[in-house]
Amino acid sequence: MTRVSPAPAERLAEFADDIERARRQRGYVPNSWLMLARRPKVFRALRALHEAVLADPGEIPGALRFMVGEVVSNAAGCRYCTAHNAENAAKRGRVAEEKIRALWQYRSSPLFTPAERAALDLALAAGSCPPSVTDEHFLELRKHFSEDAIIEIVAVIALFGWQNRWNDALATELEQHPLEFASIHLAPSGWTPGVHVK
After folding, report:
1. Domains along the chain?
2. Tally of CB atoms within 10 A around 55
3. pTM exceeds 0.90 for this model
């Protein structure tokens, strides 16, 4: 159960456009937003950062951004974010469900390119506690990506560092859509919702 209650309705009114857009696009409003709305400036700043990191066009395709988010969140142990990233990878990134199911075995799966493996290796190392990033990770990344693209990858990793800690510390309740998606596609690899269900 969520450790802090959502913002009261009068505070949510300020974010009515964001909330309505989420309902239209996703079919639900992320519970993390409802708690984040207790700090309006933080809500707006994080939403802007989220859009800049995950939605603005760049060199890294959306599919890889969500896969990086999935791997870094799994390494950090955040089941809320792993469920969301898996669902977003399929729906927004158009990653095949077979590839999502293989994501936790990306090093050995033939479904992943060497470039994807390099990005996911960095995500795994950066998301571990303590982080285990080395210069070799960046040597491998440079074989496949420009420095601008590498910064995009690191930005995804850093964004989810914040979100993983937010959602795990607060035990944010997982919404039905991502819970069902993760139960079908991630549970066979050992995923459980952990503290994120009632």
Report:
1. 59-191 (1.20.1290.10)
2. 11
3. yes
Residues 6+ away with beta carbon under 8 Å from 167:
32, 78, 80, 81, 196
User: In one letter, which amino acid is 178?
Assistant: P
SS3 letters for the chain? CCCCCCCCHHHHHHHHHHHHHHHHHHCCCCHHHHHHCCCHHHHHHHHHHHHHHHCCCCCCCHHHHHHHHHHHHHHHCCHHHHHHHHHHHHHCCCCCHHHHHCHHHCCCCCCCCHHHHHHHHHHHHHHCCCCCCCHHHHHHHHCCCCHHHHHHHHHHHHHHHHHHHHHHHHCCCCCHHHHHHHHHHCHHHCCCCHHHCC
Cβ count within 10 A of residue 188: 10
Q: Which amino acid is at 52?
A: A
- The tokens for 121 are 């290796």
| Cα atoms in the Cβ-side hemisphere of radius 13 Å centred on 166 | 19
Q: What is the pLDDT of residues 53-92, one digit of tens each?
A: 999 999 999 999 999 999 999 999 999 999 999 999 999 9
